[in-house]
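seq:
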Amino acid sequence: MTQKQKTLVGGVSILGLAGLICKVVGVLYRIPLAHLIDPMGMAIYHKVFPAYNLLLTISSAGIPVAISRMVSHYVTKEEPQNAKRIFRIALYLLCALGLVTTLLLMLFSGHVAAWQGTEEAMAGYLCIAPSLFFVCLMSAYRGYMQGRRHMLPTAISQLIEQVGKVAVALPLAALGMHKGGVAWGAAGALLGSTIGEGAALFYMMYQHKRMDHRGDEALQRENMELLSGKTIARRLVAVAIPITLGACIVPLAGFIDSVMLTQLMEGAGMAREDALIRYGAYSGPVLTLINVPTALAMAMSTNLVPSIAAGMARGDQDYVASETNTGLRMASVIGFPCSIGMSVLAQPLLYLCYRGSYTAAQLNVAAELLTVSSLTIVLFTMVQATSGILQGAGKQRIPMYTLLIGVILKIALNYTLVRIPGVDIHGAPFASLLCYTASMIPNLYFVCKYTGCRFSFTDVVAKPLLCSLLMGAIVWAIWHFIFGDAGQLAGPVLMLGIMLCVVTGIAVYALAALKLKAIRREDLPARIRRFVK
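struct:
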């Protein structure tokens, strides 16, 4: 593996580890939160995020990727002053966007809550709205540092977000619950999230100032013209718009789900409270657990954009193809075991995290949902990797179109399945599987077309899948023959059983993957590599 490839793997490792820690903290944070504000409060809490995430994506998804790609391009071309000017113009644009979206969410919070059929969520919208501004500004700093391949500040800022959320949101949720009931409890938790985002923004500003004081900029290459503000803004917008539109598609689908799923279940004869709790169990415990391993997918996509852009700037087609192959292989090596492992351990994981917050019947429904939904992890991981590659290669419109097709199919299948009594919320995971499959297949075709890489079914699919199935079979046998029904186990025994299964699963997968060369020796960190023959 070349030094550049090590940079890709190292960057994924840094952001991936931080992302995993954040996701695990997020899962653990929801356990006491669910105790504080009850299932109805959690349903209100989760109703806020689809609309919030949609506005957040509109305002801050495309420009940071554009910053990362353009900064990487100009740093590679030895034009660091242009890279710095790109950051400054982008910061102004994101500041304006952040203010606009914050004001929009505050002004229309009541209307959105009413449209969702959850008027109680209005206070939560008001509490989380300022975080749109904070995240917009922070994404400019992150995009600039990622473009220069400085991944550590982004990783630390993500940890600050989560620590701030836990330290502040839980006391505010308890206070809100005491003063005004479940709606104000949910609002207090959301206000804590806003405060955590503000703390992370101040950290990124501090890190950027330190970089400037260190003189972490080379001189502009001689005879190179500085880009004008208008030129930079025009190029940023040209790159960012299709990326933003593509990134908006999944949050838009989530927002549509927040309106559609409960209404379809109510239309099929289910009581409103039961429909809300089922939606809350799906959008809360199930999707929260699924989002833990997807942190690695986001880290991979973040690293692939500047890496592929740098190769394109040099005209190094061999490097681009090599990085593409590495990215695709890493996506499957990560995605397959996460999907199968979480599917096998769906019931014990949910009982471990949420027993006491939900009834046994609700947890069993959630376990059925998680068993199917976890299979989307490998598809999502591959979609993120291919999207990052295409964005780095300047083909950012393609992921937008493929995701749009996938989401249209998802909405159609949701409408068909969820309204059937007896199927109801169980149709949603199958709709998500269809969505990401429909997006992944054309993405892979265009990745191979525009990067010159040859898709290896053996390396990308067969080897990791075989290793994951072997791991899943052994973990299933350990759980079912030694521990049995998670609902009948005491907390310490449940924890011990899950730890035994996870450790065994990791060991089996690692040994099988090294033996079959699904994971190669050069993929491993240097400290571990010397122990592997």
